[in-house]
Amino acid sequence: MATKHEQILQYITNLEVGEKISVRRIAKDLQVSEGTAYRAIKEAENQGLVSTIERVGTIRIEKKQKENIEKLTYAEVVNIVDGQVLGGRDGLHKTLNRFVIGAMKLDAMMRYVEPGNLLIVGNRYQVHQIALEAGAAVLITGGFDTSDEAIKLADELDLPVISTSYDTFTVATMINRAIYDQLIKKEITLVDDILIPLQDTYYMTTENVVGKWHELNEKTGHSRYPVIDENMKIQGMVAAKDVLNASRHTPIEKVMTKNPITVSERTSVAAVAHVMVWEGIELLPVIDSHRKLIGVVSRQDVLKALQMIQRQPHVGETIEDLMTNGLNESSSDQGDSYEVEITPQMTNQLGTISHGVMTSLVIESGSRVLRKYKKGDLVVENITLYFLKPVQIDSRLTIRPRVLEIGRKHGKIDVEMYHEGEIVGKALFMAQIID
User: Fold this and answer.
1) d(Cα 265, Cα 295) in Å, to the nearest integer?
2) How many whole angstroms separate alpha carbon 426 and alpha carbon 258?
3) Which of 196, 320, 390, 431 has the CB geometry, 3.0–4.6 Å to 352, for a possible disulfide?
4) 89: Cβ contacts below 8 Å, ≥ 6 apart
5) Which residue range forms the structural domain that includes residue 208?
6) Per-residue pLDDT averaged across 400-413, rounded?
7) Is-contact 257 238, C-beta < 8 A?
8) How is residue 315 annotated by DSSP?
9) Pfam families from the xrefs (predicted)?
10) Maximum distance among all alpha carbons in the chain?
């Protein structure tokens, strides 16, 4: 039987897109406490089912698919620009196709305005109304309002008119940044991208006996299966070593590994790879927030995904990308060395290189050296920064990684960092190597 939390989430999912939601209404309709209703609404917001806007409330929005992740709803735009909704509230759930900056003459501007656009403009009442008539929403900058006629038209057409105190340039930058952040998130491969869904997953229940394992093994050729209870919640994992020498009539609960390591569909593939290498696991159950089984992910799937990620071009660059792209190999009598210039993005509030950047440079330089000895993917096992001096903006840093030990499955690197011939950092970097 579904829990109250699950019932509320299902209730929200079944609501019409654009419908308003309140804690009090859900608590009353489903006869639950307001605390339970509030937690479920927050979970729905995390899942992208609803959006909460100050002075408007919470509304059901269309959940964006992955291929549509670079688009924003008008509700999200309101939150990004700290805006106030002047009219057209019922259209906040809609997705905008692109935004147009109205810094030109009316005729020239309207050539670019199409249905589904967001026109960013100042206090030009005539433009507001014409844009709405063309099927575009309006974002008014500088804290200005609009005419009563435009508000009335916005309500009739369900096209939001939003006002923000920010200027046009700042608003465009904020929206661009929000889209760019989502593009970066899109590039990060998650378990959800590679998991074997429940309908294609072979699993056992706590009511099964060891004989069931043998049946599944003969049928599928697999040797590892998740074990669930009558509510689909994960209870354990069973593998060949667990059933070895066990009678076929032995309850599976007696031989399974209880409280297994699990991951969620939002876990990154990189994190899963680390868990699998560290724990020596071949198969991981994927569960939802209620510990219900929704699929499995195998070591083979993870390795394929990691290899595919390395071959794919990046759409959006992270700060780490910008930093490591500037890491250039240089010739040195003392072995492999790399040089990088310290840019403002790499420093802390004091203008010196941050610990996080130093750690990333250690990982990147150490990984490059290891890959010259061993092909394959690396999972960072341990990093120790045991000496660090301040390095300021515009300095050139020379990094010299030195292999201390390398085996079939691991590598150990000593990394030294120099500025103008003086040592400014030392670190020890250890990694697991996945063939």
Assistant:
1) 9
2) 42
3) 390
4) 56, 155, 160
5) 192-308
6) 89
7) yes
8) S
9) 4HBT, CBS, DRTGG
10) 84
Do 345 and 267 fall into the same domain? Answer: no
Dihedral pair phi/psi, residue 388, rounded to 5°: -155, 125
**Structure tokens that stand for 200 in this block:** 């294609």
Same domain, 219 and 173: no
In tens, the pLDDT along 334-353 reads 678 999 988 877 777 777 88
> Which of 427, 430, 432 shows the shortest CA–CA distance to 384?
427
Cβ contact 229:305 at 8 Å: no
Q: Which of 37, 60, 83 is the last residue of a domain?
A: 60
Place of tokens 């689909």: 232
Which run of H or of E encompasses 109?
Answer: helix 106-110
d(CA 238, CA 15) in angstroms, rounded, equals 40
Can you give the CATH number for the domain in which 417 is found? Answer: 3.10.129.10
Quote the DSSP letter at residue 199: G
CA–CA dist 233, 323 (Å, integer) = 43
Q: Which of 99-108, 307-316, 422-431 has the lowest mean pLDDT?
A: 307-316
Domain co-membership, 173 together with 74: yes
Residues sharing a CB contact under 8 Å with residue 169, sequence separation 6 or more, in sequence order: none
The three-class DSSP label of residue 287 is: strand
Q: What is the pTM (predicted TM-score) of this model? A: 0.52
The answer to the question of residue 158 being in a domain is yes
For the segment 64-112, what is each residue's pLDDT rounded down to a tens digit? 554 444 567 888 888 888 889 999 988 888 888 778 877 677 777 777 7
Kindly state whether residue 314 falls inside one of the protein's structural domains.
Answer: no
Q: Exposed, middle or buried, 66 (CB in 10 Å: 0-12/13-18/19+)?
A: exposed
Following CA atoms 134, 16, 199, 4 in sequence, which dihedral angle do they give, to the nearest 10 degrees? 150
Q: What residue type is assigned to position 6 of the chain?
A: E
* Percentage above 70 pLDDT, the chain: 89
Pairwise pLDDT comparison (341 vs 326), residue with the higher score: 341
Q: What does the alpha-carbon distance between residue 355 and residue 116 come to, in Å, rounded to a whole number?
A: 44
**Residue 21 to residue 359: CA distance in whole angstroms:** 45
CA distances from 435 to 72, 130, 283, 309, 412 (A): 40, 61, 17, 16, 17
Q: Is residue 301 part of a domain?
A: yes
Task: Give residue 283's Cα distance to chain centre.
Answer: 22
Q: Which residues, 6+ apart, have CB-to-CB distance to 218 below 8 Å? A: none
